[in-house]
């Protein structure tokens, strides 16, 4: 498997030299973090086998949200934290896609554009769901921003997890959705488009927005997901912590370019695409979000201002907050599974020696970034 850091070591220096000061600080930080991830530059721990005395160095991860190696443990912690917030009801998955005419504006104004898109999507769903013809109550919406396709093409869109039901305005009653229907998608698309236009006009009145983006219909998909709480959480966690490309999809690297694999959505078959090094760097870095931008936002019933209504909803649905029995090991999937990162403190469980495969590793000492004596 080709590591993303290996690609950066080969092409990042030339890319930075070619673009100079135009490279965004967030892009430079992502490159530096991924190059240092799980190396002596970040420190770590020294282990020694109690049988063959082999020394093993375990280095810390960079924790950059664009790094494909640093999110498995974070995913498990996020799932554990969300368990208490989940409602015992079915859920819907709503995807809102920005038309091509508006993508250049969002790319050049990421802080304002992405925030407006996520807020417009969530507010439109909540407003339409409050209509008595549909749900008749305030639903919970968790919006997650994505900006890529499987070929790393710039394609901003929002994934929303929506409760299949809502709480009445007085907080006394729970109104469930009707089967596999949440809200009509065509009126929802019109409402999202209108709210997005109004939000951009308010946030950035100086922007020149293309008229074609407001005349064409926006693409929105709404799918009933089911009521398996654990399945819903793990499905959504893949969206929350997914990065533009996992290392399992990088299948080739040479002095001139990178080969990636991607699945064709209609046929379900895997294809490969070859990109030169500069183009791969450009495609990957355009999905690195600016510092301070929240890619996950909670609205409606899940907003912190409505915690009392959410608690009332749990009572109405007779939900007892579940406890997480422990991290569940899932089958390895090169497209979705992230490599486990090293913790800042040594784990307590026994670790088998990778050399003799008989003895166990014992912790010797912590390695600090400026005092590392690694191999």
Please tell me about this protein's structure:
The chain is an alpha+beta fold. The chain has two domains: 4-64 and 340-367, no CATH class; 72-244 and 287-316, no CATH class. It is 33% helix and 22% strand. It contains ten helices and 14 strands. It has helices spanning 4-19, 25-36, 72-83, 100-108, 110-129, 185-203, 212-215, 229-241, 277-285, 307-316; strands at residues 44-49, 55-59, 91-97, 140-148, 154-163, 165-167, 174-176, 219-226, 250-253, 257-263, 270-276, 296-300, 351-352, 360-367. A hairpin with a 7-residue loop joins strand 13 and strand 14.
Keywords, separated by commas or semicolons:
alpha+beta, disordered C terminus, 14 strands, 10 helices, 375 residues
* N-to-C order of helices and strands: HHEEHEHHEEEEHHEHEEEHEHEE
> What is the number of helical segments per DSSP (H or I, 4+ residues)?
10
Number of domains: 2
Share in β-strands: 15-25%
**Which term fits the overall shape?**
globular
Report low-confidence residues grouped into runs of 5 or more.
Answer: 319-344, 371-375
Question: What would you report as the Rg, rounded to the nearest angstrom?
Answer: 23 Å
Q: Sketch the major β-sheet.
A: 5 strands, antiparallel
